[in-house]
Every structure is written in structure tokens, then in C-alpha cells.
Amino acid sequence: MRIAVIGGGPAGLVAAGTAAQNGLEVTLFERYRIGERINCGEGFFDLLGIWGRPEAGVLFQVKEILFKINNLYRVDSSRLNIWMVDRFNWQHYLSEVARAAGVKILEETPVSVKDVAHIRRDFDWVIDASGVSAISLKARGSTGENRRRYAVTLQYRLEGDFSYLKDSMKAVLEPHYQGYYWIFPKVAATKGIANVGIGCFSYPSEKIDLKKEITRILYQENLHDYNILEYRGGRIPLQQASPFLRDNTLLVGDAAGLASPLHGGGLDMALLSGKLAALSILKGTPHLYEQQLRQKIKHKIVYEEKFYQLWRRYGIDFMEKSLKSALFWGRRNFRKGLLKALRTT
After folding, report:
1. What CA–CA distance (Å, rounded) separates 82 from 47?
2. Pairwise CA distance, residues 52 & 263, whole Å
3. Cα–Cα distance measured from residue 171 to residue 184, given in angstroms and rounded to the nearest whole number
4. pTM higher than 0.85
5. What is the predicted pLDDT for the residue at 78?
């Protein structure tokens, strides 16, 4: 059985590796080089609690989150399975695992809309891990199907003194937009590096000037004189492109719209979807892939979507009240407190 995987991000690499390790013939098409063009803060949020520490690229475990809404809160995150990772090294590791299993990886090989029909014809199954662009949906004329609701982001990589964020990260909710900005250190030292970005989770009609906002944030955080090494921006899908199976094509990761509507993270769901998609093909049950995936993530998605809508309706005062509830219920275990707050909300 021949499998094509479109996209060499975490979802595509795990799908390809899983399929090849179980004896399937796999070819992976990657638009760039593996590990290039990464548009995220590089925080691995394993809130599903099923992956644990990534196998490679770990910079440190995030033991504390500095949350600022109206007030500043320090949250013990040592039990939340949150890691700062170097996505370049991590994805290179995943690609080497896939290659060792026999995956043929074609880097710098973009797949166009016209190519999709040939790939679907030449391979028994196709796994679309092409990201929010979802090339297989474009080929069907379903442009934007997984982008009707999305977050827009802009991120700078800064060089400067981030020693105050050792083993921690910072997230700030502000009142004039639905979203947050973050400071995720990669090297928490006096000559360190951090990803500093902003994500706006409002509907597309409520646009803000991200460049203007991030400039304001840099002054607000006294980071305005730090050295900007690079900047990137992108979209995060906040709406799923169900069904995840279209003829002989399975959608995984961002292509399926599998990102948190609450914080935008999606690495845990990307990995899970890639693995389950490959296993469903192996077992001859691709029609059960979406059902099996939803059984794993349904509570997470339902709670986070409700929180998103309540945040949108009631603003940051509601979010602060919810955070206080989570801290109260989770004095010894913030994960349990967070789930309690989500349920009671």
C-alpha cells in the first residue's frame, strides 16, 4: 500500500513514520526544508497528557507561567507537560526517525493544486498535513473551509536579557482585543533569546494593526531596545474542516483545523491526528479515523470552545475570575483545578 504525506511538520512526520514503521510505503512531500518556516512560539502544550516530554529539541520544561490579566499571577505548571522546544531540531529528529523507517522525504518539493489530483491517483491514500492552507481542500475548490474563523499572529525573535524568565513563560491578556501576547524564552540568560508575539483571536472583521500592537508591547515590557533577529506571522485555524476524510485523503493537524480556540496551540492534536490517521489506514478503517480522534479530544475542544465564546462575550474580567477559580481548585495540582474551572464555567 502506497501512502503520500503532504507536509513535513510534526503531524506529517509522525503520520509518515507511523505508517512506514508498520510496513507501508510512504513518500512525504515538503515545500521547504524540514524545520524551516516555523511560525509559532515553540511551546509544546501537552494538555491532553498523552505525549510527555518530546524526544528531541527540548530546551526546558516550563515550571511556571506568569499570567497577567488585570493582575499578575504565578501558576505552577510543573504538572501540565509544557515544554519549550527548538522546533528545528525536534522536527529534524522526527524526520530521521521517519527516514530510518523507510520514508522517502522529498524536500523543497511543493505540491500545487494541480498536483493533488495526480497524487490522489498515484497513491492509495493521501494524508494532508499541509497546514492551514490545506492544499487538498484548495484542490476541491473549498478555499478557506478551515479558515472561516482564525487567529492572526505576529512574532519577533528577540535577543536580550531574559534571565528573569528561567524555567517560565509569560502570557498577557489585554482588554482591547480578544487574544494575548506572549514571551517564550528559548535561552533564559542575560544574553538570551525569546519569541515575543501577539495573537488576535477575534473574528476577521475585528482587525487590529499587529505591527503597531507589538511595537507597543515591546515598550510596555521594556524590550524595545532588544535586537530583533527575525519576525514571522501567520494564521491559526480556530474552526475544524470536518469531515477529516475526503475520498482517499485524510486531513491532519492544522489542515483539519486542529488548534485550540482558546490559546492557539495545536502540537498535541497534530501529533495525535497524524498517528491515528496512519493507524486507521493500516487497520483498514480510515472511515473511523475522525470518530477515534474526536473521542480523544472532544472534552478539550468542547471546554475550550465554550471558554472562547464566554471570553468573547464577557471580556477579560470573566477570564480573570476563571483563572482565580482554577488556582483555588488547583492549589496542589493546577491541571485538576483548570479542569474543574472549565466544567463549572
Report:
1. 8
2. 19
3. 9
4. yes
5. 87
